[in-house]
Write a structure and sequence with these properties.
globular, about 600 residues, alpha/beta, 3-stranded antiparallel β-sheet
Length: about 600
Amino acid sequence: MKQLPFIIQKFVFQQESLAAIVDMDDASGVEGKIPGYFVMSSAPPNIEEAEESSEIIQRQSAQGIDDIADHLHRMMANTADGTAELVITVHGYNTSRSGVEAWYKNIFKYINRHDPAIAAHNNRVFVGYRWPSENVALRNPKKILQALQALPPLPRDVLMTGAICALALLILELTVFGETIAGFVISFLLVLLFVLGTLMLALVVLRLVVYFRDSYRADNFGVLDLVELLRQIDQAIVKRTAAEMFPNTVGETNHLQAMAQARGYWQRRSQNKVRLSFIGHSMGGFVVTNVVRILSDVFDTASVEKRPDDHIGDVFSLGRLILASPDIPVLTIVSSRANFLAASLRRFSESYLFSSEGDIALRTASTTANYIAFPSRTEARGYRLGNVALQNKYGGVDDYGLINLVSLDQDFSPSLPIGEAIARSKNNVMEQLFLTYERFQKRGVVTMADLFKVQASGDSNRASVADFFTYFDCTDYFDIKYDPNTNTCSAKPTGILTRALGHAILKPWDYFLLTLDYALNKRDVHGGYFQGQFSQQLLYGLAFLGFDDYLHTFDADAQVALSQLHLACQSRSIQGHLSPICYRVNIQGGNLEGTKAEMLEAIDVDA
């Protein structure tokens, strides 16, 4: 049996309808209407712990692949429109296994038992994917000792020398030399050695923060193992198609011919493929976009002509991309050069970004770590995409909701090419999105338009990669916390990701208070999107239903439903900026592929 680089278990409901994770051969519990699977990369946190999975685990993983493929294949045969969808969630940096399991259980419970609109779509399969992330270890004595032991000889010796010199410096200053030239020279040398030792200690701290280690694991284990999972599911569905087309196939040669015929069938089937959607949180957004990058054949005709379609492998087509606080360079929505995110966005039918100006986990940990690794000369370009915010705050109720709704209604005539409509619009997303407070800027902030003008030497009002996204800025999001698995709510509404004070721009004092809140576990500034009652409805609704079907949960009339979504966001102090593509397709009835082609042409011609 081929070694699969992951372990597969399944989600079920056990006592009191609590979601649980059990082995594939465990018959206890009840499966959901929307089946769920927990897939974990078998790569260990440290390479010394690497070992082959047991035969039992491998057999269960193979069974998991077969079950997922069976569900999807059966759904395509039994649903009226012949479609099936696979929705994959990927967690972020510094996430323990227990934390990941709790979140994925919540999703499984939410989509099956809490949201009737999602549960009614029984042609979905949910996969919660875990890559080998590691918790920050600043308070763990065992991991601190391991980090010291793992230091290479030179920095280890410098660190020890620095510690000894610090002690010697203290003794000499207190007892021997006093204010003499010799004392000054010796003190200077000891201070120099102490500083070098401190620098080596910084290496240990960086290891304990685990950012670089998680980044390596995400890139080399998380991405590749998820690619292999999708490849195995793809192949398993093709096998089922081959068996259906040629039920009496005997012999290896005939089997290979049947598989070739089945692949040809799927390649000719441009519609009704298995829809593949992703929810990526934090570093999980990096995992998702790189998976899509690998799965996309950059040398196919469509890609060479810069018109890539949404087809992935033999049986998949890309659906929706939801990024929550993505740990991705902010310039990915500005520059199109060697842009892995732009290459992915071209293939998805819908793209959403949930962000918060007050996400200090990204603003401090990620940005500080990338100060060393990310090739940027300036501070602003080192920020991450999860930190962008919308600057439309003037102290009134109109600050919130879909802030470009009026502009879309007035400026986006159905007869006007979408690139031209974006250029004419009075509410351009690049002017609205900003990164950080900076007192010397004209408006007090660094906007994406400021970066764009420098980066592209062009007009920031033209169509750009940023226009693919619909944005939800949750900086001031105010709501009750809700746990779907235990069905419990907080006593009263509160600021979910920040203190929700409604400030136009967060200042250093605000960040200090948020740091205290995060450290004291008062609020999750990085992952609060998955705790708020409305944000869960919004995020999971978009992921499992898509924009059009999610709007129908408000009203059958799309225009009325859009207004109600606007009011729902407004009442909870969420700022939204609707993608022109989304508006053109779902509200004005435009063709998705034609609209995307117009957008890509506008971007490429202007570039």
